[in-house]
Design goal:
The protein is an alpha+beta fold. It contains 14 helices and 16 strands.
Length: 338
């Protein structure tokens, strides 16, 4: 029996048990297949197999029953009143995953203009790269070199000893990523890798899954006119099992004027940036040392010792996620007050 995983709902304060979609499938892939048949494990995490699993689970009706997604629409708890499309539009799981919402109404930006905001509806963990050296050495979480690319020396130096936040999207979440800060794109690149799941059970079982998955890295300079003035920020979008693509679709006019990422592009805070294809996914933000201060409630929630978490079991001490909304406050500039 797998360990229960709980998180805290930010605005209600409730402790909630997570029941991941397809959890049995994930356990199958990440336990006996990896340990007893590494070749099969390698093949099942390749892009082609990942795309097939995505089709079966989210497009092919029989696949809903075979892979555990048949009850997804009934159990997701999604608020379709937020969506731009009418309820009758959502006749497949994929359409639900790729839904657009009236974020300008239901996900308002914080009143504080200097706020750094969440890039996704997600469950978040936060921390400092100065304080995770033990995890770094043991490879339990991620290695900065592998995450950003071993050939990206300038960015490795820029974010050394800085802060990080990890946003884990579950299958029911709104799957557009939004910009957490305002600033100019100074680098944008993709690093290839296998398709490991970001399910919490898989995260605990695998060494550095976030640094091994295929990912898209955007480096944002916020120390420009109109920027957030917190130095460089790295936004890393991570591909997971049953994710076929990350579509870059930055738009300042709701969803109506999508653009690809390119160097010199100015990003407004809170705008749609990209879309994860169906499945569970992860965003990672890296900040330079001493430039930001995380919200007190996120720090307080993460340190709670009375909540059972798979992350706690995997890393030896309490790491409790907080469930947050996209465009909500996660941090402020280091010298600013909340």
């Amino acid at each position: 029996m797998s360990m229960q995983h709980h998180y805290i709902e930010r605005f209600s304060g409730r402790v909630v048990e997570e029941k991941p979609l397809g959890d049995r499938l994930v356990r199958f892939i990440y336990d006996p297949v990896r340990e007893k048949a590494p070749y099969i494990f390698k093949k099942i995490t390749e892009a082609r197999t990942s795309a097939l699993l995505g089709f079966l689970n989210y497009d092919f009706s029989l696949g809903h029953q075979l892979l555990g997604g048949g009850s997804f629409l009934r159990e997701s708890g999604i608020n379709f009143q937020e969506c731009l499309q009418p309820p009758e539009y959502f006749n497949s799981v994929r359409k639900v995953f790729e839904r657009q919402i009236r974020y300008w109404e239901c996900r308002p930006l914080p009143e504080k203009k200097d706020a750094i905001v969440s890039p996704a509806d997600s469950r978040v963990l936060i921390g400092s790269l100065e304080k995770v050296s033990e995890l770094f050495v043991k490879g339990k979480f991620f290695q900065l070199e592998a995450l950003l690319g071993v050939d990206k020396r300038c960015w490795l130096e820029a974010f050394s000893g800085g802060d990080f936040s990890i946003f884990r999207l579950t299958p029911d979440k709104y799957h557009y990523n939004h910009t957490p800060v305002a600033g100019a794109v100074v680098d944008f690149y993709e690093i290839d890798g296998p398709y490991h799941s970001c399910n919490p059970g898989a995260v605990v079982r695998m060494a550095t899954p976030y640094s091994k998955n295929r990912r898209v890295v955007t480096i944002i300079n916020t120390d420009v006119p109109g920027g957030s003035k917190i130095g460089l920020v790295a936004m890393i979008e991570v591909v997971a099992l049953m994710i076929g693509d990350i579509v870059q679709c930055y738009s300042t006019l709701r969803y109506e004027d999508p653009s690809l990422m390119f160097r010199t592009l100015f990003l407004e805070k809170g705008a749609p940036k990209s879309l994860f294809r169906p499945g569970s996914s992860t965003d990672i933000l890296l900040f330079q040392k001493g430039r930001i201060r995380f919200a007190d409630d996120l720090l307080r929630n993460q340190r709670r010792q009375d909540i059972q978490s798979r992350f706690s079991a995997g890393f030896g001490y309490s790491l409790v996620e907080t469930d947050i909304k996209v465009r909500s406050l996660i941090a402020m500039p280091a010298k600013k007050e909340y």
